[in-house]
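Morning F.,

Quick status update on the modeling queue. The single chain you submitted on Monday has been processed. Sequence for confirmation:
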Amino acid sequence: MPGLLYHKRFILLPLIVFTVFLGCEKPEKHRPADLPELIPCEITVMMDGKPLTGGGVRLQPVSTSSSKSWSIVGTTNESGVAKMQTYGDFIGVPEGEYIVLIAKSQVSVAPSDASPEERLRIEHLPAKVIVNPSFNDPAQTPLKISVSGKGPVKETFEVKGY
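Structure tokens below.
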């Protein structure tokens, strides 16, 4: 009998795990009723002639005449391309004129063989800024993009390091 019980457990355990994971799907976000039509938008970021990987890209409306401001963000992939999303969940950007803000910084990580004192010193260093901070300042950045039509809108920007 113990052998039969073992085999039933062997069959039931994967079935239970599968059922639990099936019920744990991420709920689909509901599109806000006042969200306008979104236009696909890809922004490529280059730094020193190479794609900027892991950079944060944010679009800020040039004019704030609208009563609603949408959060529009993206992160550059290994090719330097950020696929822009509104509220981080909806692919695309509402039609309009935007200031493009780009930032990237890097946190220091201590090597695994570092002494406790060295680890403490390294882990308390401030983040190293990779992209010149002027590209993340709405008053200083020269970068702008116009999003209109059916899209997709594709634009490439060159930034300077810091």
